[in-house]
Design goal:
alpha+beta, five-stranded mixed sheet, about 20% helix
Length: about 100
């Protein structure tokens, strides 16, 4: 379980993309998904939520896509591959 992630509840049911404004692949993905309403791009250099999430999940590359799901009060983050398939999931909690 990864702690200190209560802020993720606001992204429930959304595709979250950790990105960086200087990353060309990130900009291409942003353009490709621009009409999708359930996609949130978070810049790892400018957004505190993005930095916290990237550090907790040991994200080393951008873009990194993940889905945030809340079920029965539990929040789960699932990392996705380039084909949108689940690679692995983490339960996240309130405590560090």
């Amino acid at each position: 379980m990864v702690g200190g992630m209560s802020f993720l509840k606001k992204y429930n049911g959304k595709l979250v993309v950790l990105s960086h404004k200087l990353c060309s692949a990130c900009q291409e993905l942003k353009e490709k998904l621009k009409d999708e309403k359930d996609v949130v791009f978070l810049d790892v250099r400018e957004d505190e939520d993005a930095r916290t999430l990237a550090e907790a999940l040991d994200v080393e590359e951008v873009p990194t896509m993940m889905e945030v799901l809340e079920e029965d009060g539990e929040v789960k983050v699932c990392l996705l591959d380039d084909s949108m398939n689940v690679k692995e999931c983490y339960e996240v909690g309130e405590e560090v």
